[in-house]
Amino acid sequence: MLLSVWTNIKQFAPCFSLARVLPPYIREKLVATSFMFVKKTREGVIMKFGIYYSYWETEWGGDAFPYIKKVKELGFDLLEVACGDFDRHDISYFHNLRNESEKHGIALSGGYGPRAEHNITSTDSAIVENAFSFYREIFPKMQTAGIKSLGGAIYSYWPVDFSSGVNKPADLETSIKNMKRLADLAAEYDITLNMEALNRFEGYLLNTARETVDYVDAVAKDNVKVMLDTFHMNIEEDCFINAITLSGEKLGELHVGEANRRAPRPGRMPWGIIGEALRDINFKGNVVMEPFVLMGGQVGKDISVWRNLEKPEDLDRLAAESVEFLRSEFLL
Ligand SMILES: [Mn+2]
Question: Which of 40, 194, 195, 257 has the fewest other C-beta atoms within 10 Å?
Fold first, then answer.
């Protein structure tokens, strides 16, 4: 009975703030009383909790190696690594990454906001071919390191230069055509490509979960999935729950961060409700926090960080507190 009340509330009013409609203790009782729901939760949820190593860096392309041990000590399961400079490392570097990650039991995932020279959607065919040679070089290296996914605006480039205008319909068509080809190349190395929806100030092809699901459906390859990021969703989505349930089994990875890109913490974002939506879709992917809190360097410039949002000496403690908080909100 309570389970059906709970289901109906969620079905007919998915975007109500349930915390407002029901006092939190009643809401928790409803969840705890619905045995099936709890059972499904305990058996179905195997999310991995990670962090992007640029949290500690002000330049892209830094060495991820020392962060593997560090994030293990801070309580994470996974480290997300920037892959944009993998063409500059020789193969021994990737063997070392794999050995270190296996030694500490830390999974690795890949991220890349492609530079303009790696834009598979460019109208210049030389740039498209350059992008393919880049990916042809880094995919085997990712496989050597044990990295099974690459997420970001890999359907386009980043940060977008909007000054000369954009042709969204034509670029979408080119992007879908070339992504099919890139997906086949990635599949040879057992790599999944996660298409990250970005806010309007950083991208134009995919801003919402709806657009990203449609794109992934059009590409129609098993190893091309949806990636959402709460920082971008906070700007573009009407409803966190709808965006997550719409993505459903196509959701490959979720980036998590506060509206100002600090690490998740209580108080501002509806983390409990986001966790419920993830459990509802039986999400088995990676939950990766991507905090950007230090000004300076190319990272600070590309992300538009014009003040320090944390003291550098607090970063480790805050990351450890954040992952503990997220686990408590996302896993019952
Ligand atoms: Mn992101």
Answer: 40
Distance 229 CA to ligand 1 centre (A): 5
pLDDT at 36: 39
Domain shared by 224 and 91, yes or no: yes
pLDDT tens for 21-75 read 554 445 544 544 443 343 344 455 589 999 999 999 999 888 999 999 999 999 9
Which of 9, 27, 44 corresponds to the end of one domain?
Answer: 44
54 and 62 in contact (C-beta within 8 Å)? yes
Same domain, 38 and 110: no
Q: Rounded to the nearest whole angstrom, what is the distance from the C-alpha of residue 204 to the centroid of ligand 1? A: 15
Q: What are the phi and psi torsion angles at 194 (to 5°)?
A: -105, 120
Which residues span the domain enclosing 118? 47-330
The alpha carbon dihedral of 112, 113, 114, 120 has a sign of positive
SS3 content of the chain, % helix, strand, coil (to 5): 55, 10, 35
Please count the structural domains in the chain: 2
pLDDT digits (tens, 9 = 90+) for 228-274: 999 999 999 999 999 999 999 999 999 999 999 999 999 899 999 99
| 10 shares its domain with 107 | no
Based on the fold, state whether residues 53 and 31 are members of the same structural domain.
no
For the beta carbon of residue 161, count every other beta carbon within 10 angstroms: 8
pTM of this structure: 0.88
Q: Same domain for 18 and 52? A: no
38 in the same domain as 102:
no
Q: What is the pLDDT of residues 107-129, one digit of tens each?
A: 999 999 999 999 999 999 999 99
Q: Which of 196, 202, 237, 253 is catalytic?
A: 196
Q: Where are the alpha helices (DSSP H) in 108-192?
A: 125-145, 168-187
Distance between CA 190 and CA 174 in Å, rounded? Answer: 24
**Is 188 in the active site?**
no
Angle made by CA atoms 132, 133, 135, in degrees to the nearest 5: 65
Q: How far is the CA of 237 from the centre of ligand 1 (A)?
A: 15
- Coil, strand or helix at 28: helix
